[in-house]
Amino acid sequence: MKASSDFPSINAKEADGLKPEGTPYKILIVDDSIFVKKQLSQILQSEQFDIIETAGDGEEAVEKYKEFYPNVDLVTMDITMPKMDGITALEKIMEFDKNAKVIMISALGKQELVKKSLLLGAKNYIVKPLDRKKVLERIVMVLKRT
Amino acid sequence: MRVEYINPFVESAVQILKETVSEDVKRGQLSLRSSIASMLGVVVIVGLAGQVSGRVIIDMDRQTALNIASRMNNEKLTEFDELTCATLTELANMITGKSVTKLHELGFQFDLTPPALLTGEKLQISDSKVETLVVPLELPEGKIEINVGIKEN
What is the distance between the alpha carbons of residues B52 and B45, in angstroms, rounded to a whole number? Predict the structure, then answer.
């Protein structure tokens, strides 16, 4: 296996998914649509983020967050989902870990719900259709803000 | 039905299709749908409820649906599996979500139901209680018809 020093470093950009010390950020993706899950995974994996798990509804999201805690750096949270919606799941995650970093993923037309989630502690939001640049920008911004 | 209701849906469909499928989207002639109409074969229905009620139907044939889902996933999809259906449903979510934002800005308040996807040969629809307008959109991937039926409560 090649060590990272074997690769040329001139003009090489650090992958967005890596922490300063070189280990990947750990992400939990929550969405009921396998299309959106796949899209987000592809964008994040291309920048070397580690998708530790995906969840298809709010209940599963809360369970998975607790299971992986403290080894989750960020959660992407859909708003409209079966069983438990993303706002309730966000509330439960924030109750469990007040420092949780959750970014809401929303279709347009849900501004009131996005506002509510920001008041409840979500760190940012991304509106679909998902644009690679926008997704990475928002996620990196939240991760780098301490 | 007031024609101003249909424009936000058609404009949103064109914008979302340009962003996610193809830059080349041509808008065809608006027409009034007959009370019993044949559908192209893959139908996504989203209901509207609130100050107005009705539904938006996005209709296309099977091959167009597969072409569009393939384009949105950057991979060739050849069957109606979970990924294809999730992709088409998400397309409808994005289009109707954007339209609702535009209509809210014009002062109309209502909610959307989650999209339902139906597929089948020789599908017919009959909803004579709601007057429905149809706008065809032509893409390299095929033709999509946007059906909008809205009445004020």
Answer: 16
pLDDT digits (tens, 9 = 90+) for A105-119: 998 777 889 999 999
Decide if B100 touches A, using CB distance below 8 A: yes
Give the C-alpha distances (Å, rounded to integers) separating A145 from A97, A139, A140: 17, 10, 8
The one-letter amino acid at A70: P
Q: Which CATH number fits domain B3-152: 3.90.190.20, 3.40.1550.10, 3.60.15.10, 3.30.450.40?
A: 3.40.1550.10
- Mean model confidence pLDDT for chain A: 91
CA–CA separation, A44 and A33 (whole Å): 17
Question: A65 to chain B nearest CA, in Å?
Answer: 25
**Who's near B23: CB < 8 A, 6+ residues apart?**
none
Range from A5-19, A50-64, B27-41, B116-130 that averages highest in pLDDT: A50-64
- For residue B104, the chain A residue with the least C-alpha distance is A109
Alpha helix locations (H) across chain B?
Answer: 6-20, 62-73, 82-105
- Whole-angstrom distance, CA of residue B79 vs CA of residue B66: 7
Cβ contact (<8 Å) for B97 and A108? Answer: yes
Answer yes or no: do B93 and A107 touch at CB < 8 A: yes
Which residues in A lie closer than 8 A to residue B105 (C-beta atoms)? Answer: none
- φ/ψ of A3, rounded to 5, equals -80, 160
Model ipTM over 0.95: no
| Class level of CATH domain A23-144 | alpha beta
